[in-house]
Structure formats: structure tokens, C-alpha cells
Amino acid sequence: MYAHAITRLPGENFADGITTSHLGRPSFPLILQQHEAYRQALRNLGLQVTVLPAEPTFPDAYFVEDPAIITPRLAVITHPGAPARQGEEITLEPVLARYRPLVHITPPGTVDGGDVMIVEDHFFIGLSERTNHAGASQLAGFLASVGYTSEPVPVASGLHLKSGVNYLGKNTLLLTRTLADYLGFDNYEKILLDEDEEYAANTLWINDTLLMPKGFPKTHRKLTGLGMDILELDVSEVRKMDGGLTCMSLRI
Ligand code: CIR
Q1: Ligand 1 pocket mutation pick from 63, 78, 86, 202 by most atoms within 8 angstroms of CB
Q2: Which option is the CATH number for 4-251: 3.40.630.30, 3.75.10.10, 3.40.50.2000, 1.20.1510.10?
Q3: Is this prediction's pTM over 0.70?
Q4: Which one of 130, 131, 234, 246 has the fewest beta carbons within 10 angstroms of its own beta carbon?
């Protein structure tokens, strides 16, 4: 069960962040509203939510999932893969130090937390445009030092590993067809996303409720079969910046 979530407010210049989407210019008032609804949903699920101030120097900093990885046994401060995001971790570090012993990914290693999927005591580490071999192997070493296992997963498309796959509990993965071919996922039940709903891969499992993005009816139908509560949240403005539900918090 998660008890805390760390979040950061989007800043007025959030639209200056990195994006590959062509969904139009995002609205600041609307993203604030969507972020507030997200924080409220986490509170309703019993989490105490820390809200850090926006970081004007780093327009993507409200995607707090990328500069750190929190596990039950330690927290890893990453060296984010996008140069424009390197430094976001600095103000996050003292906050995480309250909860866990800290270790650091160091250059030339790069890791984005969006590439790290935790499944019980095993970690899948995406090798992507943001997470390189050096970073992944540093991370694997830290995880092994506290008794976790891990394996690298090539990410052929999409920004991060968790843009295409997430763990929903009950030995079940929600994933794209491309990632479904990965042999390391063979021992899991798989819910395959339709091609036109792949964005819904970024569904967040919190204390036996699934938070999913609004507007993906086929995926919603498939998830209903799991028998968990499902809460749909509108993250249209977050999506315009290539982000989603998992990216906007660190869960502890
Ligand atoms: C970026 O390109 O880094 C941000 N605009 C989006 C990061 C999304 N983070 C995530 O999926 N963990």
C-alpha cells in the first residue's frame, strides 16, 4: 500500500518543456486543474500528497517520476537523459532523503524513472533514448545491492518503457503489441492495447484502484474484467507534453 506521493506543480512555462506530440499548444489553467484533480484522486485513495513548488528553470520538472526512483529499500537519484532536464533532481533530493537512503546515477550513465517498472521485487529497466546502458547497469547494481533483481528491456518506440507497459497487480501487464513480444514478459497475464489506444498504457495502479486516462473506452472495457475500481482522469494537457499519470508523482 502506498502512503505518500510527491508531486510538483507545473509552472507557467510548462509548455516550453520537451514534446514530440502534435496535439496543439497546452493550456496552463487547464493543466493546473488536471494536476489538482490528480492530486485529489491520490488523496482520496489514502495518500498524503506533498506538493513542491514549480521550478521555473525546468519546465518539465512536474514530471517528478523521471529524476528519481523510489523502492521500498532505497531511492535512486537519477541523471536524467535529456540535457535540459539535468538538474531537476537537485531540489528533489532533500525531500526523498526523508524517506529512504539515497544513491546516485552518475555520468556517463543516464536514467529516467519513466523507464523503470517495478513488479514486486523485480525491476524492468527500459533502454531508451533517455536511459543508456551505463545508467541501466549502475541502476541494476544498486538494486542488486539491496536484494532486488532486474533486467534490461529494449524500448523501440515511445518515450519511456512505461509509455508502453505498466503493471496492474495480479501478475498482469497492460501493454502495447510491440512490447508484448518481449520474452521477459512471457510469465505475465497480458492485456493488449489497441493501436489507437496505446496512450492508455500509462495507467497507474494505486492501492487497488486503477487510475487511467480519460477517453480510452476499449481499454476501459478490458480493464473492467480485472474487478478493480477504475478512475478515469482527464490528462489531455499532460499528454500534449508527452507525459501521463505515472510521470506526475513518486509513490512511497
Ligand atoms: C519529457 O520529454 O521529458 C517530458 N516532456 C515528458 C516526460 C514524461 N515522463 C514520463 O513518462 N515518466
Answers
A1: 63
A2: 3.75.10.10
A3: yes
A4: 234
